[in-house]
Specification:
The structure holds two protein chains of two kinds. By secondary structure, chain A is mainly α. Chain A is about 75% helix and about 0% strand. Chain B contains 17 helices and 22 strands. The longest helix of chain B is centred in the first third of the chain and has 19 residues. The chains are: A mainly alpha, B alpha/beta. The interface between A and B is medium-sized, with 23 and 36 residues.
Chain lengths: ~375, ~525
């Protein structure tokens, strides 16, 4: 019998973790002589106080949904894909390649082609560690981490030597054609005559991310492939008994995972920057791990966790801007939230389980 | 002898322990006198292991008191249990495989930071223990090189080395040949004569009858009876365990073997580590008969089932209903085997036959998840699978009949019924079934045996692998004995007995065969 009721498992555990992380953050802020309640207010206001703030929050959330889904799909096969960062970088390269070198007359075409390219590039980057894991037993955690570094190096090379326009000093590609511009929330709001989301980077990719969540939910819980992926994750010996090929399934799960991580590039490269710049992923690949953990590897949980981390990113950025709290401290706060919601799960769960056991005994 | 003047070696008074809503132990009281062997018998989940875990300090009782040698004692952890003179021999040995016997015995009981003096002292101590109790072991042998019988003796010596006066043995004969089991019982008899107290946890009625002085029966967390062994009988104990009368013998008609369904010729299997597991065996199974493969675990039976089930490679020829099946390559997997009418109830349902975290309905489709009747377009038809599961649960009396409950939350017997229902209802030509009643309670054993015989009577071929000789003898129409990857001989069940099979299982052919 499961000790915790489902609602406690899904809602209460992450919520308590979050409150603990925030409490600790506030102590840290107080310790450096700033007003913690004011800081919290600034963060909340920055993330949710205006349509512009919301536009930023949802932009970050879109990135985190893709990388969170990537981690989750691999995790259902008990594979820990730490390489979302590198796969997202390669996804960006895929987007830039099609947008710079193919004629894309309309944003709808650009969106479809860029989505495919980002997924293919991301999956291809995951394919080598996947093959090494499936066939050679090289640990996926080690290989994907290393592939993040290789991806970063590769991007520096390409941006400096291949994609940089002549005469430019900046290691970045030239801007994509105007026709590839994805509708931003600002553009979409204007269609309805609503002046909102001014200069916020959130764009139509957010809805692509939501669609990806639905597809992954269907895939994992309602298709044979998802059934086999989960079976492999739970027990490889049982999977073999049932006639499921672990090598094939490991490859497929990691290719899907890499593809999802790569798809993040539609948002940050095509949707926001509209060109390829260095370090475009800004660590979103790693945040995806925390998002997947907090979201219990379920698409709905991932959406919620991604929005939460989006708020934290946006709030943190403004906090560093508007107060004397140094930007490093903001990173500490973000790290605390990641640590509490991601890694210290059992610290909250164990006492909670005891509490639920004691209430049940009395009943 | 005036019994009241001697304090019991162990006395438990009113022990209760709950895990959430489950009352694992309810007001348990027992007294075990020194120098006796006390049996504790009960079905899986009856609370035997919980009780022993409390005694060994793994769990803390919610209520109740423990007296050791008349002294009230609290046992917060296993260190305290050892200090109180309690030694435990677990079902799964806790030995370091690449350490020697001596190193394993000393491990955790070293005299000081330096190892040499401890080992020296232990060597001398071991010799005197071996002489005293007839527990012969080779101190410098490495654990992974010695047999299970010997490993078990190391576990017992470990406990004695730590000055245990009370030995608890949890299902000690599960991995032993009958001869090894007899040897173990002789050792236990010797320990008893020397004044040690022994608690034997088992589900085998015969062991209880053979060796114990007193026996306690547990059912659903309660101690339903404690009796002198001489005053009871196997049917009475079975009834006390299950709560109703149980048929201990399988009721079956003589077999009517038909055409050959499974024909194995010169099968060889070498495992991943390069060990030659199955060495050129050949046999046939006909329609309407049960071929029982007896043998101690680890003599190639598992690999035989794995090759037939499609998840281990082999060489040789295997035909099913006259058609050869692939033993390697792309068409040698579970899916291909199922398509050929082979159903498989694997030996280890928790690691192979079921996904423990999957709900019962998901497990019902396991291995058959490509079946068109479970599909709806590109999606799986989860509703249809649930419906099918509910019906199967009804026919196989799975309790609770809840398709949404995870497999891990069913008892061993009900888990096995879920697997059986899935495999038998496929109407296979050939059923492979390994350890059908391992870890299954007596009540369910009866039902499972009836299902196997019923399938045979429908004219299906059945290959039964079991380490339980009683089961082999009562179910099989023919018996083959495996030892060291070979078939030592075939016998008819009514023309043989446990003794002869036991010799074959140990590799001795008496010049016959």
């Amino acid at each position: 019998m499961d000790v915790l009721p489902r609602w406690a498992e899904v809602v209460l555990v992450p919520l308590i973790s979050l409150v603990l992380a925030l409490a600790l953050s506030m102590i840290v802020i107080a310790a450096i002589g700033e007003d913690p309640f004011n800081a919290l207010k600034i963060m909340a206001n920055a993330a949710l106080g205006s349509t512009q703030g919301i536009g930023y929050t949802l932009y970050y959330a879109t990135n985190f949904i893709f990388t969170g889904l990537a981690v989750a799909v691999a995790f259902h096969a008990r594979l820990f894909n730490i390489g979302g960062e590198g796969q997202a970088m390669l996804g960006g390269l895929g987007v830039a390649t099609v947008c710079l070198y193919l004629p894309l007359p309309h944003w709808t075409i650009a969106l479809v082609v860029a989505t495919l390219a980002s997924a293919v590039f991301g999956a291809a980057w995951a394919a080598i560690p996947a093959y090494l894991q499936a066939r050679r037993g090289s640990h996926i955690v080690i290989t994907t981490i290393m592939f993040n570094f290789i991806a970063a190096g590769l991007l520096i090379y390409i941006l400096r030597e291949v994609m940089k326009p002549e005469g430019s000093m900046e290691p970045a590609s030239q801007k994509f054609a105007e026709s590839t511009h994805l509708p931003s929330f600002f553009d979409m709001a204007q269609l309805f005559g609503w002046e909102a989301f001014a200069s916020a980077p959130a764009n139509i990719t957010f809805f692509v991310a939501l669609a990806a969540c639905y597809v992954i939910w269907r895939l994992i819980w309602h298709t044979r492939l998802g059934y086999e992926i989960r079976a492999l994750g739970h027990s490889e010996t049982a999977a073999k008994y049932a006639g499921i090929d672990p090598v094939k399934l490991t490859m497929i799960a990691l290719l899907i995972s890499g593809g999802l991580a790569g798809m993040m590039a539609i948002n940050n490269v095509l949707g926001e920057a509209e060109r390829l710049v260095l370090n475009a992923t800004e660590g979103a690949g790693f945040i995806g791990i925390a998002v997947a953990l907090m979201g219990r590897n379920h698409p709905v949980g991932i959406i919620i966790a991604a929005i939460l981390f989006g708020m934290l990113y946006q709030g943190g950025a403004v906090l560093a801007q508007d107060t004397k709290i140094p930007v490093q401290m903001v990173i500490v706060i973000q790290a605390l939230v990641i640590m509490f919601t991601g890694a210290l799960d059992n610290m909250v769960r164990a006492p909670l389980e005891r509490f639920f056991l004691s209430t049940r005994k009395r009943a | 002898m005036n019994v009241t003047s001697i304090a019991p070696a162990i006395e438990l008074k009113g022990i209760s322990k709950a895990f959430g809503p489950v009352q694992a132990n309810k007001d348990i009281s027992i007294r075990v006198m020194p120098g006796t062997i006390h049996g504790i018998i009960g079905e899986n989940g009856a609370g035997k292991s919980t009780l022993m875990s409390i005694l060994y300090g793994f769990y803390k009782a919610d209520k109740g008191e423990i007296f050791i040698g008349g002294q009230k004692t609290t046992i917060p952890d296993s260190q305290a249990a050892i200090a109180a003179g309690i030694g435990m021999v677990f079902q799964h040995f806790k030995l370091v495989e690449n350490f020697t016997v001596l190193e394993n015995i000393v491990l955790g009981a070293e005299d000081s930071g330096l190892l040499k003096p401890s080992l020296k002292r232990a060597r001398a101590e071991l010799k005197s223990l071996a002489d005293e109790y007839g527990l012969n072991v080779e101190p410098d042998a490495v654990i992974e090189d010695i047999g299970v019988g010997m490993q078990q003796r190391v576990e017992i010596l470990k406990a004695l080395y730590r000055k245990a006066d009370i030995l608890i043995l949890d299902e000690p004969t599960g991995v032993l040949t009958p001869a090894e089991a007899d040897q173990l019982f002789r050792i236990l008899g010797r320990l008893k004569e020397e004044g040690k107290t022994i608690i034997l946890i088992t589900h085998k009625l015969r062991e209880i009858m053979d060796i114990t002085d007193t026996v306690s029966v547990m059912r659903r967390g309660e101690m339903t009876a404690t009796v002198k062994t001489v005053d009871t009988s196997p049917p009475e104990l079975a009834e006390l365990m299950v709560g109703r009368k149980v048929l201990l013998q399988v009721d079956k008609k003589p077999a009517e073997p038909g055409e050959v369904i499974l024909d194995v010729k010169d099968l060889n299997v070498t495992d991943d580590k390069g060990v030659h597991r199955v060495k050129g065996i050949s046999f046939q199974v006909r329609a309407g008969e049960i071929l029982g493969i007896a043998g101690v675990a680890g003599n190639g039976q598992s690999e035989l089932l794995e090759v037939l089930g499609g998840y281990e490679n082999g060489t040789g020829t295997i035909t099913v209903s006259g058609e050869e099946i692939d033993l390697t390559g792309a068409h040698s997997d579970g899916q291909s085997r199922r398509a050929r009418g082979i159903a498989h109830v694997p030996e280890d349902r928790q690691r192979e036959g079921l996904i423990m975290d999957y709900a019962a309905w998901e497990n019902t489709a396991f291995g058959y998840h490509h079946d068109p009747k479970y599909q709806r377009g590109i999606l799986m038809d989860n509703a249809a699978i649930k419906q099918d599961t509910e019906e199967k649960m009804g026919r196989f009396d799975v309790r609770p009949p809840d398709p949404k409950l995870a497999a891990k939350n069913f008892s061993g017997g009900n888990q096995q019924k879920i697997v059986l229902a899935r495999e038998i209802e496929r109407n296979p030509d050939l059923l492979l079934i390994g350890q059908p009643t391992r870890g299954v309670d007596i009540g369910a054993i009866e039902f499972i045996h009836q299902q196997i015989v019923a399938l045979r009577d429908q004219g299906k071929a059945i290959l039964l692998v079991s380490v339980e000789l009683e089961e082999i003898l009562s179910l099989s129409d023919r018996i083959a004995v495996m030892f060291d990857g070979r078939i030592m001989g075939e016998r008819m069940p009514d023309a043989t007995d446990e003794k002869e099979l036991g010799l074959l299982m140990a590799g001795m052919t008496k010049g016959a065969a």
